[in-house]
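Quick log. Single chain, no ligands specified.
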Amino acid sequence: MEDIVTRIQDEKAGGVAIRTVKSFLSKIPSVVSGADIVQWLMKNLSIEDPAIYLCKRTMQNKARLELADYEAENLARLQRAFARKWEFIFMQAEAQVKIDRKKDKAERKILDSQERAFWDVHRPVPGCVNTTEMDIRKCRREKNPHRVKKSVYGVPDDGQSQPSPVHVSSQPARKPTREDVQKEITFLNTQLDRHCMKVSKVADSLMTYTEQFLEYDPFVSAVDPSIPWITDDTTFWDLEASREPSQQRVKKWGFSLEEALKDPAGRDQFLKFLESEFSSENLRFWLAVQDMKRRPHQEVSSRAQEIWQEFLAEGAPSSINLDSHSYERTSQNLKDPGRYSYEDAQDHIFQLMKSDSYARFLRSNIYQDLLLARKKVTSQPLPESNSTPTSCLKNATNAVAWQTERAELLTNTHTHRLTTAL
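-> predicted structure:
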């Protein structure tokens, strides 16, 4: 602020002109109007830069550059404030976007990151500490940390009245009572229930998931053969459990690694691919941990030690690559082995397969050949029937006779039950 005031007073460097004003018979020296100061600030401080930055963000169709709620509110407020020159601001943003598109991809990413970091510091999220100045809440926390509760993303603690940001009581902090602790628990539970994702994003994800799995839901889409819950025919289950997957099953493996590992045939094909790349120990470790979780309790301890000796011990025959944090956590858990002793290691290995091996599996000849083969089988025409009109009429007559006989049998059974009951 002192630098800005100095620049305003310096007339030689383009500051605000300070002049003497006549008022009737007297003169008032060193006069400046508020309108002149406002005009100087608008001209020299580039206050439309945040608006240009937010406009650039809206022009780029990238998920990581979408505006947050508070940024959208700021953009609407700036649009109202700069209504007269908004077209000029929008043209500036378009020009900057065109210049950025001509740059290399790496340079563009670096500039985007730098610009994002700059505005995160100078226009922080509401409720966060402003690092560019001595924030009043930070001063309060330093002076009396026991009385002041830090707000999370602008959500205050409704259980306590907020003290004045200027006045700090000289009395020492009292010992918290049971009621204070209960209020703090309620506040923390409220924070745990907060959703980090916007409802629109959740709705889009749910709609995408529903559309993707629509044809795989037998209750929504008609499938052939029909599901056992409708027709009491187990052919559908037999086909789903067979090692010869259909085109739908093979196509479903491409949705995610979870879907591929759910299917026994998908696991076999993925294991076959990993064996061809000499990295099957990751999947074998993951499957061994899954098997251990389903074992009886008395077998868990011994099975946990066997997994350690096979995959994680020094000189293990099928050693896997774990980070130091997961390895230390797993070794600590094995002092008292349980079903979830390998949870950290299993999650780490799963993420490795998901980010590396799974993507290569989808591009491999094993998966592509299987997918094409199933498409050819599905697209083959059905053989023509040799039935004649006479045989069709005979089959229809037999079907009607069978239905009539079945109805008579059910009627007789029902009559017999009523007679017995009476």
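The chain has a mean pLDDT of 76.
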